Amino acid sequence: MNNLKKVTHIADFQRLARRRVPKMFYDYADSGSWTESTYRANESDFQRLQFKQRVAVNIEQRSTQTQLLGVPASMPVALAPTGLTGMQHADGEMLAAQAAKNYGVPFTLSTMSICSLEDVAAYTRAPFWFQLYVMRDRSFMEALIDRAKAANCSALVLTLDLQVLGQRHKDIKNGLTTPPKPTLKNLLNLATKPYWCSQMIKTPRRTFGNIVGHAKGVSDVSSLSIWTAEQFDPTLCWDDIEWIKKRWGGKLILKGIMEPEDAQLAVDAGADAIVVSNHGGRQLDGAPSSIAALPAIVAAVQGKTEIYLDGGVRGGQDVLRALALGADGVMIGRAFLYALGAAGQAGVERCLEIIANELSISMALCGRRTLAEVDRSVLRNPAIFD
Ligand code: FNR
């Protein structure tokens, strides 16, 4: 992609990614569970929140600077943990982490990444966040926590909304595997993806970097769902957080909170931050959008932890809407995945630039100079989700 300046919004990246990334991996990103109603609502509910346009305010000096868990960030955005990112683009996790570092925002590495904790640490030489699933094999979890510490990770993101795997039709129909099996259908599709193939040929990383060795033979969606059913711990309960927090000993973010009762329990469990998230509409279809769930959680938490939101954020305007309703920051999943698939590290950097510009300009048009000036009065109808 020579001229990324002509990519002006995330939908451009999505179109490019659809063209450039093998169908099974593009579909893996662009899908939700069952009817995908929650996946769609995550995006469309943002549009229901209208801004108040304000004029004749001196907004020449503006800043999107903030702190996330006490660490300065150029804007209130972090890259969400996403599995198989190294299949959207060769070495995808390393490149996305480097882009996040260059842009001054946190990157989160998924347990189910292609590049390992050690790969990302060696490549970026900078702290990042590590996302952990709760698994039955506690010694494996302990090993992952210790590896995250050794890799200098600055926060542990514990995902609570995947005790069982939500069904995504497309993955089953596509026969998702990593790497793709050399079937005629896959080979014909790969033949139309020269950019992806030319990058992928340069790297040895093809399967789950953090769990390879532990989960032998797990590469396709059916063996992954069997492994998930066997490994991911359906008995997980709030008491488990205690030993994880103790073993980790650093900042803990609890991800997948959608109800005020659970937010309260997360506060009681000692979370430093929570992520209001329905896993991007990939788990419980029929749950509300994340933005609709946010206000009640903000009211319940009363500032006792930081609150991040993810799900459906496709630009800086969505960031501003989430902040207006009380979030301290947002995480982006598909927005950066599409950019990565379209154009690698430069794509992710451009994605962050687009979001930052959109946030800054929208703040200005609402008459706000700093994030401290952003509250519900930025919106005309802030109460629609109360
Ligand atoms: C995810 N998500 C996710 N979450 C997590 O905690 N661990 C993981 O491994 C993954 N994997 C994953 C893969 C893909 C392809 C997607 C799209 C999402 C959920 C992710 O962290 C985040 O909650 C959503 O992506 C947010 O929604 P948007 O921004 O994608 O709409």
Automatic annotation (TrEMBL):
Glyoxylate binds at residues 28, 133, 168, 279, 282. GO terms for biological process: aerobic respiration. FMN binds at residues 81-83, 110, 131, 159, 255, 277, 310-314, 333-334. The active site is at residue 279. GO terms for molecular function: FMN binding; L-lactate dehydrogenase (cytochrome) activity; L-lactate dehydrogenase (NAD+) activity. One of its GO terms (cellular component) is plasma membrane. Residues 2-384 form the FMN hydroxy acid dehydrogenase domain. Keywords: Flavoprotein, FMN, Oxidoreductase. Its cofactor is FMN. Its EC number is 1.1.2.3. It holds the Pfam family FMN_dh. InterPro entries: Aldolase_TIM, Alpha-hydoxy_acid_DH_FMN, FMN-dep_DH, FMN_HAD, FMN_hydac_DH_AS. Belongs to the FMN-dependent alpha-hydroxy acid dehydrogenase family. NCBIfam families: PRK11197.1 (NF008398). This is Alpha-hydroxy-acid oxidizing protein. It comes from Paenalcaligenes hominis.
